[in-house]
Specification:
4% of the residues lie in helices and 62% in strands. It is mainly beta. Among the domains are: 114 residues, Roll (Ubiquitin-like (UB roll)); 221 residues, Immunoglobulin-like (Sandwich); 67 residues, Sandwich (Immunoglobulin-like), CATH 2.60.40; 86 residues, Immunoglobulins (Immunoglobulin-like). The strands form nine sheets. The protein has a 24-stranded antiparallel barrel. Strands 4-5-3-2-1-7-6 form a seven-stranded mixed sheet. The chain has a five-stranded antiparallel sheet with strand order 52-51-54-55-57, with no helix packed on it. It is extended and about 110 Å long.
Length: 792
């Protein structure tokens, strides 16, 4: 083959020269060209393949218009010629293009302006998992909590019982919770909230009937309503980024490599084809950051594109809406009385991304006694931070008018951050909450500012100042400075100073050190002095594991003042068991030169869950939960996001009480725990459950069982083995095939117990028979001789 290549190339060159000569001699000069021939075409350095071209006597080439488009070229204006009904373009006449013909290699090298080449779009948004389960199983749960507190003094004894029930059917979720409290002097049972909610994943909208909590924004209040609410909630899809993201565009003339940096850290490397490119949806945690793209072509030449961008979650991407509309009866004495509802009230806001720089909106709330409404806006001040403005006017039932306004500015760039707040509220400004529940009536104006600087080498330093003027009551002024730094060996130090004046001036100093000897362990010591009271604290803590296991916290406090001194100890321990979580805590205090007291707190919390027709016990269910099944195998370890959660029970089941709703939870099992005589289809599933739902998460396992025997025909009263034929059978709705060997021996797997119809062909005749497999735990089942009696 190596010897033939030069001869072939020589023959092609000779054919080309002969064609050129014949074309020059016999064709008119206007269209005098060679016969068509194939050349290899390169476009801006990229090979596009072989195409049929025509060479004119002036050295120009005619190429089919369709072929130019097939190369990805936006064909520019130029002289067109039709040959044999096919439109062709003259390469020399094409604008913003040039070409070179290489006779020795029979190749055409085309060079086009990058604007004529295809746009390459690279999306930096994190890709979705390719295979995700979106379960919607009928499910329900009941959470309970029991806490007993007792000790000295005797009136500290109390019993608190809480309960919550949730039921999901399709897209509907019913939730209700209540609390019972019994003390030495009183007892009370209170229903907290009851509602039915429906979430739509596709549109990220939520509809709620019943008790709900709503807030209209910074110039409003949070209210408890019994009614209906309709909201756009982007966290229904936690992977959807609602705020504007950065993008960089440009063009390259040759195949190139692009390195993308965010804030000086390389985040990605991409191959770029010649033409225009767009790098979009580059995200960061927040603040100003430079997006830098370094492009290198095949000759080592570099091009750098630097684009500063300010990332801000306070803004909406252009064209996006965010809203919440709520109306109902104002809930009175929430947490104290079960069914006390007041007059009708409303709370609403709606924001719209006018552009990637500006988000506009409006808000309002009100009730029987008054209402307030007003516009609000957030915008990016170039790369100098985010400004948010809110204005509102109000009217009360008695005719009094009020107004409020707020302006904030925040900035962050690398190690530097600043924040500013200006807020003013008139005396008669009306809000929806009942008096004493988040009312802003007492605030006249507030001015606050702060700045921070932090690097891994220097640590983090911040200073904040806040001044609050009230219509009635005492004004407040605070100055705070704090510093923290990791000093190595898993040790961090921190300190703060706070000067507060609210009637009287109090200076507070705090110094602390933390040590982390292990991933779940921490030791801390700190000193605090405020208003003449000095407190020294030493603490040791072990965090609870995600699954079953122990956690504890032990602290010792020493307090000294001019009046008295005391020592307090506060040990606590908690155990996450398979079916519940149990805790014990003791707090004892001894006063120097006097008596002391101690309080003991014991608690038990758990859940009862139902998924489909399966009931089970678990730890308390805070969000969604899952039921993992691994056939009927006991002792198989189950992991949630690589954290061990426990082992399957005797029926091969384990409840997982802490799945994140709408998140992609990775559930896996330890395949090495599966007995060797079982086959396992998969060891990892990605599950994204709805809110407060239960999901079945099955891992299919099959016992490896082989069936053997010998197959034959009975002819003239004699049994004769059937060798080297294919047997077809049906088992569990699936068609299987297996061959026979010498002496009619056969071996087949995945054939469960039961009677299975089978057939084969021998000497042009078809034979029907049955294979009966007994139910047994044997790994290999020998059926002995099987005879096919019916040969036709």
């Amino acid at each position: 083959m190596r010897g033939r290549t030069p001869n072939r190339a020589a023959r092609r060159r000779a054919s080309l020269l002969l064609s050129l000569l014949l074309g020059f001699l016999f064709l008119p000069s206007a269209v005098r060209c060679a016969d068509s021939f194939y050349v290899k075409i390169f476009l801006n350095g990229e090979e596009k393949g072989e195409f049929l071209v025509r060479l004119l006597d002036d050295g120009d080439f005619l190429v089919r218009t369709a072929d130019l488009a097939a190369m990805g070229l936006s064909v520019p204006p130029g002289r067109a010629t039709e040959i044999d009904g096919e439109p062709h373009r003259s390469l020399r006449s094409l604008e913003r293009m040039s070409f070179v013909f290489r006779e020795k290699t029979l190749s055409l090298e085309l060079t086009a302006h990058p604007s004529l080449l295809p746009l390459r779009v690279v999306d930096f948004r994190p890709p979705r998992q390719p295979k995700v389960l979106y379960p919607n199983d009928p499910s329900g749960f009941f959470n309970y909590g029991i806490t007993w507190t007792g000790g000295n003094p005797g009136d500290a004894e109390s019993l608190d019982v809480t309960g919550q029930v949730g039921v999901r059917r399709g897209d509907l979720l019913f939730l209700s919770d209540a609390a019972f409290e019994k003390t030495h002097a009183d007892q009370r049972l209170v229903r907290l909230s009851t509602n039915v909610a429906s979430d739509r994943r596709e549109t990220m909208q939520r509809l709620v009937f019943g008790d709900l909590t709503a807030s209209s924004g910074d110039l409003g209040t949070g209210v408890n309503l019994g009614g209906i609410g309709f909201s756009k909630i982007y966290r229904i899809d936690p992977y959807f980024l609602r705020y504007p993201l950065a993008g960089v565009g440009g063009m390259v003339s040759l195949p190139s490599e692009a390195e993308v940096y965010l804030g000086g850290t390389r985040i990605r490397t991409e191959k770029l084809s010649p033409g225009q490119f767009e790098l979009k949806n580059i995200s960061s945690l927040g603040g100003r950051s430079d997006v830098t793209v370094v492009i290198r072509d095949p000759f080592g030449r570099e091009q750098t594109i630097r684009s500063p961008f300010y990332f801000a979650e306070a803004l909406l991407e252009k064209g996006l809406h965010e809203y919440s509309y709520n109306v109902g009866f104002l809930r009175r004495k929430f947490g104290e009385e079960s069914d006390r509802y007041g007059p009708i009230a409303f709370s609403a806001f709606h924001n719209y991304g006018l552009s990637d720089r500006v988000t506009l909106g409006g808000r309002g709330e009100g009730g029987r006694d008054g209402a307030n409404v007003g516009p609000q806006a957030s915008f990016r001040a170039g790369n100098a931070g985010i400004v948010t403005l809110s204005l509102a006017g109000s009217a009360r039932r008695d005719g009094r008018l009020g107004a409020a306004g707020e302006a904030t500015h925040s900035f962050q760039a690398g190690a530097v951050s600043t924040r500013t707040l200006l807020k003013g509220v008139s005396r008669d400004y009306a809000v929806a909450a009942e008096e004493g529940e988040g009312s802003t009536d007492s605030v006249r104006y507030e001015v606050a500012a702060g700045a921070g600087y932090g690097t891994p080498r220097m640590g983090t330093f911040s200073v904040d100042a806040d001044f609050l003027k009230r219509h009635t009551g005492t004004d407040r002024r605070t100055l705070t400075a704090s510093y923290s730094r990791n000093i190595g060996w898993n040790v961090s130090v921190l300190g703060s100073f706070r000067n507060a004046r609210e009637g009287e001036t109090v200076n507070e100093v705090m110094l602390g050190v933390n040590y982390y000897p292990g991933s779940d362990l921490s030791l801390a010591a700190n000193y605090r002095e405020a208003g003449g009271l000095r407190t020294e604290t030493v603490q040791a803590r072990k965090n609870l594991p995600a699954g079953e296991g122990w956690g504890y916290n032990v602290s010792v406090d020493r307090m000294d003042s001019t009046a008295l001194s005391s020592t307090a100890v506060n040990p606590s321990v908690q155990y996450n068991a398979r079916f519940g979580s149990y805790a014990a805590e003791y707090r004892g205090e001894r006063i120097d030169g006097g008596g002391g007291n101690g309080v003991v707190r014991l608690s038990a919390n758990g859940g009862i869950a139902r998924v489909g027709e399966t009931f089970g016990f678990s730890r308390p269910i805070a969000d969604s939960f899952g039921l993992v099944t691994v056939g009927g195998l006991e002792g198989i370890r189950v992991y949630h996001n690589n954290q061990e959660m426990g082992r399957t029970d005797g029926r091969g089941r384990l409840f997982l009480p802490d799945l994140g709703s709408y998140y992609e939870n990775q559930i896996s099992i330890a395949d090495r725990d599966v007995p060797i005589d079982y086959s396992l289809g998969e060891v990892l599933k990605v599950v994204s459950p709805p809110l407060r739902s239960g999901s079945r998460i099955p891992f299919e396992v099959k016992r490896l069982q082989a069936v053997t025997g010998t197959l034959g025909l009975r002819r003239d009263g004699k049994w004769k083995p059937v060798e080297y034929v294919e047997v077809l059978l049906t088992a569990e709705g699936k068609k299987l095939a297996f061959p026979t060997g010498k002496g009619g021996e056969f071996y087949v797997e995945e054939l469960g117990p039961g009677t299975h119809p089978a057939s084969m062909e021998q000497e042009g005749k078809r034979c029907l028979f049955e294979i009966a497999v007994p139910a047994t735990d044997d790994t290999i089942v020998d059926l002995g001789r099987l005879t096919c009696e019916d040969a036709r």
